[in-house]
């Protein structure tokens, strides 16, 4: 059930150099949210910016929910200036979340940069089911690694990748995933859940295909309405074009088409 509500900010704190953790009152609809779903937030009561912005649900805790975000533009800059006690207009939960794995599946979570945002919520669900989870976190450098303590607190095995080698594996987190899959230590029934930049997800999809492993990818796309009306966030799949905000944001990797298809009439 999706609902619109004006909710109070309970806490708002810095979580990194340009990252913030926003805690909001959770209406009944969002208390029932699933990992991988998102909300649309109106960051200002004025017409600037005109459109809402989508944010992954970072976790739900009782009567509150959290949003982890990075200041990357005007909208997130405005949001970063909001304070506890103020209210924000929120629509959610939206989209389809991550499905559960098979009963015997071991789990690998892959988060690139801000892609970790929905994965903490997912890891908490797996912890309740006593699932064996390995978490691979990637960033440009060690200062960009997010939520490591949250995952470790759940007794997950956590491995780090940094592009510049300042910590852990030197290279992209997809390269770390490749080394894990090649090591054979995670052979057998396995499921991969990933969120991050599109190039990273494309690599995860390739590795999953080559290793015959099922993977679920949460796509990061620009959204206008977030409700499936404007068709501004469609992606190509083997089942035709799908809306990230409605049929997604989570898709099974093998269903996605990464190369642009030539349409009839195109040269």
Low-confidence stretches: none
In total, how many beta strands? Answer: 16
CATH architecture level-2 label of the largest domain: 3-Layer(aba) Sandwich
Q: In one word, what is the shape? A: globular
Mean pLDDT: 92
| β-sheet strand percentage | 25-35%
Can you walk through the features of this model?
The protein is of the alpha/beta class. The chain has 6 helices and 16 strands. Helix 5 (173-183) packs parallel to helix 6 (198-211). The termini are far apart.
Write the topology of this structure.
Blueprint (H helix, E strand, L loop, with lengths): L2 E12 L4 E7 L2 H4 L6 E5 L10 E4 L2 E3 L2 E7 L3 H7 L6 E8 L11 E7 L6 H10 L4 E7 L8 H6 L3 E6 L6 E2 L2 H11 L6 E6 L2 H14 L2 E5 L15 E4 L2 E4 L6 E3 L15
Structural features:
single chain; 267 residues; alpha/beta; Elongation Factor Tu (Ef-tu), domain 3; Rossmann fold; 7-stranded antiparallel β-sheet; 16 strands
Quick structural gist:
The protein is built from six helices and 16 strands. With 267 residues, it is an alpha/beta fold.
């Amino acid at each position: 059930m999706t609902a619109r509500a004006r909710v109070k900010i309970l806490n708002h704190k810095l979580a990194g150099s340009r990252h913030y953790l926003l805690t909001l009152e959770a209406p009944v609809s969002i208390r029932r949210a699933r990992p991988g779903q998102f909300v649309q937030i109106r960051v200002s009561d004025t017409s600037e910016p005109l459109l809402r912005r989508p944010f992954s649900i970072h976790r739900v805790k009782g009567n509150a929910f959290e949003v982890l975000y990075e200041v990357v533009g005007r909208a997130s800059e405005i949001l970063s200036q909001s304070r506890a006690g103020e209210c924000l207009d929120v629509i959610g939960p939206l989209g389809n979340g991550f499905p559960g794995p098979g009963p015997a599946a071991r789990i690998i979570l892959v988060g690139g940069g801000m892609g970790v945002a929905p994965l903490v919520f997912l890891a908490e669900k797996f912890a309740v089911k006593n699932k064996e989870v390995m978490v691979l976190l990637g960033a440009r450098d060690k200062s960009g690694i997010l939520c490591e303590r949250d995952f470790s607190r759940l007794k997950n095995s956590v491995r780090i990748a940094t592009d510049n080698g300042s910590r852990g594996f030197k290279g992209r987190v997809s390269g770390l995933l490749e080394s894990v899959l090649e090591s054979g230590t995670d052979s057998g029934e396995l499921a991969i859940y990933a969120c991050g930049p599109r190039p990273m997800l494309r690599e995860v999809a390739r590795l999953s295909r080559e290793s015959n492993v099922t993977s679920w990818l949460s796509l990061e796309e620009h959204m206008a309405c977030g409700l499936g009306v404007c068709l501004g966030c469609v992606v190509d799949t083997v089942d035709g074009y799908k809306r990230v905000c409605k049929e997604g944001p989570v898709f099974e990797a093998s269903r996605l088409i990464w190369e642009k298809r030539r349409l009839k009439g195109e040269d």
